[in-house]
Amino acid sequence: MSTKLKCELCTGPGGELLWEDGICRVVRVIGPEGEAFPGYCRIVCQEHVAEMSDLTTSDAHHVLDVVLATERALRLTVQPDKINLASLGNVVPHLHWHVIPRWRDDSHFPAPIWAAAQRTATARPNASSANLLQALKTELSTMNETP
To answer: Smallest Cα–Cα separation from 107: which of 93, 123, 83?
Structure first.
């Protein structure tokens, strides 16, 4: 059986699909992690590769542009104190980026979200998927412009 057939990011979206093109997709994390860190998104490569260096230079730049557009969209919609970016792939070796909004009073701050919780989570409103998608589309439309 091929690795692709066993890969959860090849057989499913990996969250609530917000946007996609031929190279990658942006999904909103659902479940407890998405509730604890409102707006938490992943950028998932459409192709089953494990590392950024497995992509063509053009595709790697595109993925990073989408990561940055997602970060900007989250900063606008959920107004976190900080954004964490991570691309690990140790558990799921399919290239994906985590874009995680963080607050000084969240359950894990300043530790990573995968560490033990340090306090009870502070409830905060979650931006609607429609608002997040609109902000994402706005940011993606300026992806290739020089700041």
So the answer is: 123
Say which residues have a Cβ less than 8 Å from residue 141's Cβ, sequence separation at least 6: none
Contact in structure between 94 and 49 (CB atoms under 8 Å): yes
All structural domains of the chain:
3-141 (3.30.428.10)
Closest by alpha carbon to 23, among 134, 133, 97? Answer: 97
CB 136 within 8 A of CB 76: no
* Residues paired with residue 84 on neighbouring β-strands, in sequence order: 100
Asked if 49 contacts 7 with a C-beta cutoff of 8 angstroms, the reply is no
* Distant-in-sequence contacts of 61-65, Cβ < 8 A, 24+ apart: 62/23, 62/24, 63/23, 63/24, 63/95, 63/97, 65/143, 65/144
- pTM, full prediction: 0.91
- Sort strands 16-20 and 24-28 into parallel, antiparallel or unpaired: antiparallel
Checking if the pLDDT of 103 tops 70, the result is yes
Whether residue 134 is predicted with pLDDT greater than 50 in this model: the reply is yes
Which residue in this structure is represented by tokens 């989408």? 66
